[in-house]
Structures are given as C-alpha cells and as structure tokens.
Amino acid sequence: xxxxxxxxxxxxxxxxxxxxxxxxxxxxxxxxxxxxxxxxxxxxxxxxxxxxxxxxxxxxxxxxxxxxxxxxxxxxxxxxxxxxxxxxxxxxxxxxxxxxxxxxxxxxxxxxxxxxxxxxxxxxxxxxxxxxxxxxxxxxxxxxxxxxxxxxxxxxxxxxxxxxxxxxxxxxxxxxxxxxxxxxxxxxxxxxxxxxxxxxxxxxxxxxxxxxxxxxxxxxxxxxxxxxxxxxxxxxxxxxxxxxxxxxxxxxxxxxxxxxxxxxxxxxxxxxxxxxxxxxxxxxxxxxxxxxxxxxxxxxxxxxxxxxxxxxxxxxxxxxxxxxxxxxxxxxxxxxxxxxxxxxxxxxxxxxxxxxxxxxxxxxxxxxxxxxxxxxxxxxxxxxxxxxxxxxxxxxxxxxxxxxxxxxxxxxxxxxxxxxxxxxxxxxxxxxxxxxxxxxxxxxxxxxxxxxxxxxxxxxxxxxxxxxxxxxxxxxxxxxxxxxxxxxxxxxxxxxxxxxxxxxxxxxxxxxxxxxxxxxxxxxxxxxxxxxxxxxxxxxxxxxxxxxxxxxxxxxxxxxxxxxxxxxxxxxxxxxx
Length: 577
Fold this sequence. Notes:
Blueprint: H1 2-18, H2 20-32, H3 38-45, H4 49-57, E1 66-72, H5 77-88, E2 95-101, H6 109-120, E3 124-128, H7 134-143, E4 150-153, E5 159-160, H8 164-175, E6 179-187, E7 200-201, H9 208-213, E8 221-224, H10 243-252, E9 258-269, H11 275-278, H12 283-299, E10 304-309, E11 312-320, E12 328-333, H13 337-350, E13 356-362, E14 372-377, H14 386-396, E15 401-406, E16 409-411, H15 416-424, E17 429-438, E18 443-445, E19 448-450, E20 458-460, E21 480-482, E22 489-493, H16 494-499, H17 511-521, E23 525-536, H18 547-556, H19 558-563, H20 569-573
Parallel strand pairs: 1-2, 1-4, 2-3, 6-9, 12-13, 12-15, 13-14, 17-23
Antiparallel strand pairs: 4-8, 5-9, 6-7, 6-8, 10-11, 15-22, 16-23, 17-18, 19-20, 21-23
C-alpha cells in the first residue's frame, strides 16, 4: 500500500509542477516501456529449423574460413560443453576453433574434453599453454593457432547463435566487410527463457564518438586477418580489463568496411565471475579504457582527454581542446519581437562563450543592446521559405560557425557552445545538436533517426524518457553519432554549409534534416552531445509535417531510409527506446 501512496504523491507533484498534461504524458511513456510478452522476445533472437536448414544449404561464391579465438582458463564443464556444441551447430561450416588452455591441474577435465572433441572434429585446434599469463597474453598465444581468413572472438563461457557465422559470411560476401560486429544478449539458465528486454544489447551502426564513449561493440566481433598487419600484438597487456575496447579502437581506424549486423548472434553468459556481472567493480579496467581512448586521440592527432562520466565509471566523456575561439553566429528563428529580445538577453546571461554575434529576422530593427547584432529584414518577403531565410542569415552573418536556434530554446549549461563547438570544429562533422528538454523535463531532442513506419518518417530518440532517465544502454549519457540534428538548436561550420551548398527547398518542412542527410551522404557525421543542454519552452520541438511533405521527404531520401544505421528496428519492438 505504501508504494501506491508514493506513486499518488509523485503524480500529484508532477501535476503541481508541470500541469495535468505532463502527468498524462508520463503515464503514456510508462505504458510504452511495458515488457513485451515472451513470444515477442523470443522472436527477436530464436530462428526456426526451416530457416537454419536453408542456411546450411546455401553455397557462397567465395567462402572464407573463420578462426574462432577462445582462450580457456578453468572453464566450468557445462559452459565448455555448451560452447563447443554452439560451434558444432553453426549453419556455416567453414570454421576452425582455436583453443589455448591455461587451466590449472585442478581443472584437467578442460583438456580431456577438448582433446576428445578435437579427435572427433578436425576443425578444433587445441593447445596447452605453459602457464596462465592472463587474458591478453593467452589470447595472443591463441591467435597464433589460427589459419583462417577472418578471426572471431568467443569467450570461454559464452555461446554462439547457430546463425552467427552464416550471417557474418553474408556480410563479407555481400558488403565486403572487413570488421563485423553483431547484437548480443546476456543470459543465465536456458536461452529460450530469456525474458528481460533490457538484457539485449541491440546496437547502432558504427560511430567513432559512440565507441570512444563506451565499448558498445563488444560481442560478437569478427575481423579480417589483414587488419592485424603492422600490429606488434593483438591484445596489449597495458590495456588488460579493457583489451577489447582498445582492440576495437585500433582495428576500426584501419578500415571503412565496418558492418553492423542488427541481429542477436551472441549469448553472453552472466555468472558471478563474468565481466558482464561485475565490470563496475574493476577500477583497473576503467583506467585501461581511458588509456586506450587517450592513445587513440594521440594516434589520430586530436587534442583531447578522456575521463569517466561519473557516476558512470564505464561511460566516458572526452573533452576536446578548442583550436581557437572563433566567432560564432547565433541565428534566432521562429521568434516574435519580444521573444527575440528575451532570447538574446537569456543567452548573454547564461553563456560562457564570449565571441558571439546574434542574427535575427524581423520587419524592423530591435533594441538588443550593444555587441555584434545583425538584422535580416523579412518585411518584403513574408512567405520566404525556411531554407531561404536561413541561407540569407548565414550570408549576413560573419561567424565561422553558425547556430540555428529556435527562439523558444534556453541554455541550461553555460558551456553549451563550447561542448558543441568541440565537435563542429572537426572536418568529419556536418552538424551537432545538444540535449533538449521540454518545460516538464521530458526529452524533446536526443537525436533524430529515420523511421519508415512513422507518419513523418522520423524517430525522435528517447522520446519516452525524462531528465531523470539514463536511456537504454546509457544512450542519454554520452556523446554519439546521430542521423540528424534539429533546427531548434544545431551548430555547423561555414565550410559545412558551403560543402552542402546551403539549405535547400527540396524537402519543405525537413530543411534541417535534409541538410544533415546531405552531409552524411558526403561522408560526414552528425553528432549529439548530452553535455550541452537546453530547455525548449514551446509546444513541439519538431513541428508536425503534412502528408505531402512527408511523402516528398521519404521519396527524396528513400535510399537513406534503407541504410539507416543509428536507429535499430528492434528497439521499438522491445519498447526500450
């Protein structure tokens, strides 16, 4: 009964602070996150025998040999047996399992089981290590056994999905993949009984900012042998505890042929000794990850420093040095005269970055005080499109960097410009957006992706969360790539604007999204950062689109909808984002 009373009190508090409308919005958000039934969850990862047989019958034109790398150490008998059986059940047969055993005498059964299996199946290669030298050195020894074209990493207490190597082979043949990673799920007990959707790690496509923030790639990882060329060692002992994070950072620097397979193909066992259970307590692993990230920044010539984003030890915040303090032009739009004055005064009061100018639209000059102020007249052209207005403002502005800012947006963090500028200054970035809340602390903007099954074709990430939530897999707690930024608040360089040939009228109502997609198509990234925060005081941050506008947008960007990589099709099915 006490729990019910507390919920009533919380509901009344929300009504008092934010209004009844906000209360019902939060109720709907909680309904969205209800756990799906077991059959829905099973459909996400279990495959029927008919499909498995179809996979077994497929003949690939250029089949590659996969070497599965698995160092052993005192592996529990039942775990080892299940691992071996998961290889035997693979629907793609061109593999070898490389086992390097560092187990002690008390666990002699490990060797007995492996030798017996190796006699039955010549694809199993077993080697006894002279001594146990830890995960990094043991893996380095294990990889010496490999004769395959590609290497895949499998921990000694985990299990591969029967379709794992088949799906990876598809990615190699159909997409020329050199580095592949898949989705995974943590489990204990029987795999078909997995019932908690939050145990699934359904990952976005590759993004270097996402990877630096946390090792979301993890399992199952497969890569071409040629990516090891020039590497003194596969794993570096100095990064023990986060050796996989370091490895992924290094190998993904070497290729653009990185493919994410959005399917659960790896089962990560949860037990009292597993990393999946207790990484938070291993401080040395956190230190190793920070070292690995810092070393990548050194290798790539980026001035920056990594640190844990406390209280989250294993989510990292990278602070990049600003190369200079360039003039930043804040272009205020969607605001009446009084709102413009209010917005300028608020920004001046709540912003630490000083080298600013303000650009505003109005039919007459406004008294905005001293400083860099630029007025763009709209008196003669009341029907001017958003794209044309924004282009006129960019041309009128003098800043090397430009911020489109809705007049209803208010800074919540003083260093909001610095936090976005550190990404916008990179040549590989098109646009950057901040974390934005509505007046009631529900999420207004945490990234935008494309969604074919939505009316307007857009998916607003974490729209069912509040300021108190961390998001699925910490989605709201670190910088990451996103498909698009929003005109409510987005920063971009003048060079990006020139490269894109400005904003355009091809997709009315989607001018900002279209701008970001064109940047993405040209090979640049769009970035979202939670460390710049704003509040939106208006009703709807992304205005509704007409059916005609949506149809034009979807038609124009049909190919991008098919290739969308920063929104997982299963997030909505499991109600986790």
